[in-house]
From TrEMBL:
Chain ranges of the Glutathione S-transferase UstS-like C-terminal domain: 123-219
InterPro entries according to UniProt: Glutathione_S-Trfase_N, GST_UstS-like_C, Thioredoxin-like_sf
Organism this protein belongs to: Phialemonium atrogriseum
Signal peptide: none
Pfam families, per database record: GST_C_7 (PF22041), GST_N_2 (PF13409)
Domain GST N-terminal: from-to ranges: 22-98
Protein name as it appears in the record: GST N-terminal domain-containing protein
Length: 247
C-alpha cells in the first residue's frame, strides 16, 4: 500500500450536514488545489466557530483602503511547510499560484473580469432569493440559529419570506436574457476548448463552477435553473474532474 502524501495545505471550510464543501468561495480554492494536485486536508468549521478559530490561529483580517476591517471568513489556509496562514479567496489564490505555478491557473483576464462581473450582477439577486433561504436545510441546529439570526437581521424579515413561488419565478425570469448573453461570452473560445479562455481552466472557470456546485449542494432545482443556459453547463462539466475531492 502506497504511503499517503502529507498535506501541504490545511483548508478551513464551511461545515454543513452533508459533510461536503458547499461554500462557493471555498470551492474556488478547492478547485485550484485539486487542479494543481496540491495535497491538502480539510477542517470544517460551523458558522459561529469561524471567528474564534481563525482568531486563535493568529489571523488578522486585512483592512480596506477606507479603513474598514474585513470580517473573519472562510476559506482560510495554513501552508504547512512555512506555517503561513492566509484568509480570503483572493489572497489565497495569489499565494497558491505563486507557490505552485504548475499547472498555471490564470487569475484574471479582460474576458474573465467581464464574465465574473456580469455573472455576479445576474446571479447575486437570484441566489439571494433561491439559495440563501434554503441553506438552513443543510446546517446544524447551532449553525442554523447563527445563520438565521444574522441574515434575518439584515433582511428585516424571515428567510422563508424569500421563497414566495411567484416572486422566485419573477426573479429568475428577469435574469434569463442576461444569462444567455453571459453564457455566450463564456463560449467565445469554444473552438479551442470548453473553458472561458479555451483549452485550460482559469480562476473564472472555478468562480463559475464553484457557484454552480454550491447551488447544487443546497438545492438541485436551483442548479438546474442555471445549467439550462449554454456556457454554464459546459464549464461546469469541464470542471467536474476537479470536484472529486470535496471533503
Amino acid at each position: 500500500m502506497a504511503a499517503q502524501t502529507e498535506p501541504e495545505i490545511v483548508l478551513y471550510d464551511l461545515a454543513c450536514t452533508k459533510n461536503v464543501c458547499f461554500s462557493p468561495v471555498v470551492w474556488r480554492i478547492r478547485l485550484m488545489l485539486n487542479y494543481k494536485h496540491i495535497p491538502y486536508k480539510t477542517i470544517f468549521l460551523e458558522f459561529p466557530d469561524i471567528e474564534p478559530t481563525l482568531k486563535g490561529l493568529g489571523i488578522v483580517p486585512a483592512e480596506s483602503s477606507s479603513g474598514y476591517k474585513h470580517k473573519y471568513t472562510v476559506p482560510a489556509i495554513q501552508h504547512v511547510p512555512t506555517n503561513t496562514y492566509i484568509m480570503d479567496s483572493g489572497p489565497i489564490a495569489q499565494f497558491l499560484e505563486s507557490t505552485y505555478p504548475d499547472p498555471p491557473v490564470p487569475l484574471t483576464s479582460e474576458l474573465g473580469r467581464e464574465v465574473e462581473a456580469k455573472t455576479r450582477a445576474l446571479l447575486g439577486p437570484a441566489f439571494r432569493t433561491s439559495v440563501m433561504p434554503r441553506e438552513i436545510g443543510i446546517l446544524s441546529p447551532r449553525a442554523e440559529e447563527y445563520f438565521r439570526r444574522t441574515r434575518e437581521a439584515s433582511l428585516g424579515h424571515r428567510l422563508e419570506d424569500l421563497l414566495d413561488p411567484d416572486k422566485e419565478e419573477q426573479v429568475w425570469g428577469a435574469v434569463g436574457d442576461g444569462m444567455r448573453a453571459v453564457g455566450e461570452l463564456m463560449r467565445m473560445h469554444r473552438a479551442d476548448g470548453p473553458f472561458v479562455l479555451g483549452a485550460q481552466p482559469s480562476y473564472t472557470d472555478f468562480f463559475i463552477s464553484g457557484s454552480l456546485q454550491s447551488a447544487r449542494v443546497v438545492d438541485e432545482g436551483v442548479f438546474q435553473r442555471n445549467i439550462k443556459y449554454p456556457g454554464f453547463k459546459e464549464i461546469y462539466e469541464a470542471c467536474l474532474p476537479y470536484m472529486e475531492k470535496k471533503d
